[in-house]
Prior knowledge:
Elements: H1 3-9, E1 13-18, H2 24-38, E2 44-47, H3 56-70, E3 74-79, H4 85-97, E4 102-106, H5 127-137, E5 142-147, H6 158-171, E6 175-180, H7 184-196, E7 203-207, H8 213-223, H9 229-238, H10 246-266, E8 283-287, H11 293-301
Parallel strand pairs: 1-2, 1-8, 2-3, 3-4, 4-5, 5-6, 6-7, 7-8
Amino acid sequence: xxxxxxxxxxxxxxxxxxxxxxxxxxxxxxxxxxxxxxxxxxxxxxxxxxxxxxxxxxxxxxxxxxxxxxxxxxxxxxxxxxxxxxxxxxxxxxxxxxxxxxxxxxxxxxxxxxxxxxxxxxxxxxxxxxxxxxxxxxxxxxxxxxxxxxxxxxxxxxxxxxxxxxxxxxxxxxxxxxxxxxxxxxxxxxxxxxxxxxxxxxxxxxxxxxxxxxxxxxxxxxxxxxxxxxxxxxxxxxxxxxxxxxxxxxxxxxxxxxxxxxxxxxxxxxxxxxxxxxxxxxxxxxxxxxxxxxxxxxxxxxxxxxxxx
Length: 309
C-alpha cells in the first residue's frame, strides 16, 4: 500500500513513529510497544534512521519485519548524511526487495559532535536533491518529506524555509509530516502559508504527548518548537519540587495532546480539500519514543481505537 493512495481515499490517516533499538532489551521493549499499538490499526508505521546512517541495517531489518509480521505498512526514513548515491541506491533496492515502497526522504542531522552539515562526496546536500533523484530513478515509490511549522532551526528566515519545503514538493514529495508542535494556531498558520506558495500536498501533524519534562525541554530546544504558556505553567508547577510525579506529568501531557488532536480533527480542512465542506487534518503522526501507553491512552480518549482483532 502506498501512503499517497491511502491519503487519497481516507482522511485522516493515523501513523506511529519508532526508532531501531540498540540492544536486546530495547528490542524486546520495542516489539512489545509495536504489538500493543498494532491493535489500534494505524495506517502506517515509520522507522527512523540514525545520525549518519548509524542504524541503516537495523532500519531496513525492522521495516521488513513490521511488514511481514504485523501486516502494517511501514515507511523507512532515509537521510543524505554519510552516504553516497550508490550507498543510498543499495538501501532503496534492499527496501524494495522486502516490499517496502514508502520512504521519508530527509537531509538528516550532522553526525554527533559536528555542528554543521557537510555533504558526503558523491552524495546530496539537500533533501530536495535526494527526492528528485529518487523520483527519477524509482518513480513507483511513495516519498514523504519533513517540514517545520515553527521554521527549521537552520533556516535563514520563514520565507526561506517555506521555499525549501516547496522545493521538496516540486522535486516529487507526495506528502509532508511536520516536526512536533504544541500550538495548533502555529500549525494552521503554517498550512495557510504553504497553500499561499502553491504547496497542496497532504500535511500530517506531528504529535508528541509530554511524558517527561526534561526530555521534552531537550527536544523542543533541538527542533525549535515552543511550549504554549498554559502547558508551560502546568509543567513548571509539576516540576517545582524538583521530582515531579511521573503519573501527573503523563496525564497532563496526554490530556493536552488529546485537546490538541480534537481541535486538529474538527478544524476546517487546511489542505487541498478546503472549501469542500471537509474537516480535519490529513493525518496525525504520533512520535512514540518506542513506548505505547501515551498513544494508547490518546486513542481511547479520542475514541479512535478500532475493535481488537
